[in-house]
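Problem 12. The chain below contains 245 residues. Write out its predicted structure in token notation.
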Amino acid sequence: MIVGHQLQKHFQLGDQYVHALKQVSLEIPAGQFIAIMGPSGSGKSTLLYLLGGLDRPNDGGILIDGRRIDMMNDEELAQFRREMVGFIFQAFHLVPTMTALENVALPGVFAGLPRDARERRATKLLGALGMGERLDHRPSQLSGGQQQRVAIARALFNNPPIIMGDEPTGALDSKTGQTVMELLRYLCKQRGKTVIVVTHDPNVAAYADRMLHLRDGQIVEDQTRVVSPDTPSMLGAKVDDDKMA
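Solution.
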């Protein structure tokens, strides 16, 4: 599904030249759940943004689903992101003037879905994440955890084959965070999604099949893990009822 070859990324910060990534190569098969870990400044978020098409490498290539995204123009890259990747960030990036329902349904506007269809799908996703009674609330009327659940529902709206999260549970209490990670694991194992999560939390990383450890812009450990067998997920079943489509 994803191949990164000799990826390099550097920034100019004042008089400093920062090498965020140094010739990083990796392969991620479809349907794998990966946690990217490392200390602050190790390059883990930079790697995620390159793989998701949110930033471009200074050198190296990225092949996703047979396509070289590092060679796409801005319009092609925007379409790729819209069709292929659902992003979940610690900062929610919700539109403040829109309700929870409207925020989640927003990708459907760009996809040209009729209003009834996109609102029906958004309602089911929000209901599955425990937000069924907050459909008409704007972000300022929601707690941090509630805003994150809205952002997660929006990321899942287009049924993307790849889900990427940058500290996706960072603003959530432990119970809600566990619910979100169970959902992501369900979507990976039962629906075949490729899930990549940047985290500093070992409890979050414990849901992954594989852990990449970065330090100073390089992969220093690539560990495949044996995760306990999955148990049925009522939350996953609720989302699956809509078949994410």
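Discussion. The helical segments are 44-51, 74-84, 100-111, 115-128, 144-156, 174-191, 202-205, 234-241. Students who got a different answer should revisit the alignment rule from Section 12.3.
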